[in-house]
Amino acid sequence: MSALTSRPTAAPAVITATAAERRRRNAKRGWNVVGLLVFVVTAFPVYWMINTAFKPAKDAIDPKPHFFPWPVSLENFRRALNISDFWGPVERSLIVSASTVVIGAIIGLLAALAISRFAFRGRKVVIVGILTVQMVPLVAMIIPVFLLLNQIHQIDKLSGLVLTYLTFVLPFTVWTLRGFIVNIPKELEEAAMVDGCSRTGAFIRVVFPLLAPGLVATSIYAFIQAWNEFLYALLVMSQEHETATVWLGTFTTQHGTEYAPMMAGSTMMGVPVVILFLLVQRRMAAGLTAGAVKG
Amino acid sequence: MSAAETTTTKVPPPRRHSSPPGRGPGRARVRRGNRVRLGRALTPWLLLAPCLLVLVLVLGYPLIKLGTLSFQDYKKPQLWGFKPATWVGFDNYQAILKDQEFWDVVVRTILFAASAVILTMVLGMLIALLLQRVSGWVRTLINIALVASWAMPVVVAVTVFKWMFDSDYGVVNWTLSQIPGVDYSGHNWFASGPEGLSVIMLQVVWGAIPFVVITLSAGLTQVPKELEEAARLDGADAFGVFRYVTFPIIKPLVVMMTTLSIIWDMGVFAQVWLMRGGHPEPEFQLLTTYSYDKAFGVNDYATGSAIALLTVLLLLGVVAVYMRQMLKIGEVE
């Protein structure tokens, strides 16, 4: 700016410009250092988990920490898999999460369409209602939900768990999908209808293809939430039918808590989720804020 | 939510879309017959039906049940159906409110949640502002780290933190001991409640910051550069620009994030439960674990429900603020 304001006198302008530039570059360097510090602190727990998982168990409990997993060892993973059944819980978690997502996506998509593409009396109440539901702390609901599942004989059943997971997946799915749908111009649909499409036809041929990426992102996000859930899984399922999170949460060996295999288990559970999340995060953030700002 | 269903029964004559003003609506209304109009009015409710049904079954009904339970005597015999539940009026509440332990837990929970929320919001805001100032590659690095900690399952994160803060082999004790004159080797972080809860809080904040940063960053990109520049030319320093230009624009987002953080941090359960190996000591109890212990530890479901309900009431004040914000969003439509 200073370069612009003092243009008439050419020589000083150049000097101030370079000085300002240098100052700006120095400031940026300073911010970068702070930024790297933030990066190190935030990334450390993840790095430490992977680091511990891959080093020999002996190194993990060396009083002087080893900051690199050298020599690389897969021993911890082998132990983690042998201590108790790993694939059973993983399979159950996959079934539960996938069912939750599929049911949630179908029901949620219909509801999202209703509140984003139709004008009707009570729409605002529904929108506010869904947002309110999203805020009910799930922890406060465990007792009555447990009694409800007990009444309808869904304790220790995967279907019962799916039902409870819908409580948090559904409101979220509806709200996010609404954000994506609002962003698709209504004129596209109307053009299709003018050209002879039915309302349903217009939706399937025009809106759905545009919505698909958002739907995938929302589904993956919902999948991760269901996959990560711990409290209801702990309460509803018996120990022989535990899910992956409970498997890790109650991970103990006959030698007490062994952290190195535990970190291997954590890595197996956490890293796939992180990769999935990295794939959809950008789109999700866009969808969430689109919904928030556009209203 | 119950309000939503009450309106489902009577469907008034429909109104046309709020969208493209000027063309369409008038003509359409003339052309369409009564039957079509009724069909149009029913369509959104048919689309909503499955969603509302599920929410009523798994949220509405339990919510009412939570209320009724708290006024009953409901223990193991009632659970197994050997004895009917009997109404006891306010007995449960009276017993809880007289219990000093309950009040200790309330104070602890509020302190815990308040510190966690403040820490999350302040750090989140600072990191979001920082992200605007760093070079692209640093921003990418931080974003990857944030997304990784966001996606981490709570169970995994808790396990990792427990390991980092382990008294004998934990990397934190070792790092602190590197500071001259400080010896933390063998230090047990969970020997005292406040210290242990601080570690738990650190983990909660670590997991909560990414969502705040990513949302606030998205909000910050919508702050017009010209406005900030104008303020700077008018002589505002960095803080002034933030206080009078940037913050007012992103304030709705900040309010929303704060409210959500309060709800989430008041609901912290798994972290405490897991860090303490499934049996939190009295000085680690928060309202959530306290209610859980009462219900599933000693099978007093009624008292547990009453505590849970009191927790929800405590949250209601906060929720009122959030609701106002949401209503505003509803009005914009």
List keywords for this structure.
heterodimer; A: 295 residues; mainly alpha; MetI-like fold; 2 domains; 13 helices; 0% strand; flat; disordered N terminus; disordered C terminus; B: 333 residues; two-stranded antiparallel sheet; 15 helices; 73% helix; transmembrane (chain B); Sugar ABC transporter permease (chain B); membrane (chain B); MetI-like_sf (chain B)
What do these coordinates show?
The complex is a heterodimer of chains A (295) and B (333). With 295 residues, chain A is mostly helical. Chain A has two domains: 2-73, no CATH class; 84-294, MetI-like fold (Orthogonal Bundle), CATH 1.10.3720.10. Chain A contains 13 helices and no strands. Chain A has helices at residues 2-5, 10-54, 57-60, 75-83, 87-117, 123-135, 138-151, 158-182, 186-194, 199-228, 231-236, 244-249, 259-294. In chain A, helix 10 runs antiparallel to helix 13 (259-294). The longest helix of chain A is centred in the first third of the chain and has 45 residues, at 10-54. The two termini of chain A are 36 Å apart. Residues 1-10 and 291-295 of chain A have low confidence and may be disordered. Chain B is mainly α and 333 residues long. Chain B has two domains: 2-8 and 17-69, no CATH class; 91-332, MetI-like fold (Orthogonal Bundle), CATH 1.10.3720. In chain B, 73% of the residues lie in helices and 1% in strands. Chain B has helices at 2-6, 25-31, 34-69, 76-79, 91-98, 100-133, 136-151, 154-164, 171-178, 193-220, 225-233, 238-266, 270-275, 287-297, 301-332; strands at 72-73, 86-87. Chain B has a two-stranded antiparallel sheet. In chain B, helix 6 (100-133) packs antiparallel against helix 12 (238-266), helix 7 (136-151) crosses helix 10 (193-220) and helix 11 (225-233) packs across helix 12. Chain B is flat. Classes of the chains: A mainly alpha (295), B mainly alpha (333). The interface between A and B is large, with 102 and 116 residues.
